[in-house]
Amino acid sequence: MVTRRRLLTIAASVPFLSATELERRIARRDFRGLTREDLPTPSMILDLDLFEKNLRRMDAHSRKTGLGLRAHVKIHKSAEIAKRQTALGAMGVCCATIAECELMVGSGIKGVLFTCQPSGKNKIQRSAALARKDPTFHCVVDDPIIARQLDEASAAAGARTNVCVDVFAGLTRQGCPPGRPALELAQLVDSSKHLRLAGLMAYSGDASHTKTWEARKKKSENDLAGMLETAELCKKSGLRTEIRTGGSTGTYNIDAGSLTELQAGSYIFMDTAYKKIGGKSSDQVYEDFDLSLTVMTTVVSKTRPGICSIDAGNKATLRPTDQVKGRADVKVENQGAEYGMLLWRDGDRDFGVGDRVELYPSNLDTSTNVFDRYYIARGDSIVDAWPIMGRAGAAQR
Question: Shortest CA distance to 360 belongs to which of 302, 264, 273, 268?
Answer without folding.
Answer: 273
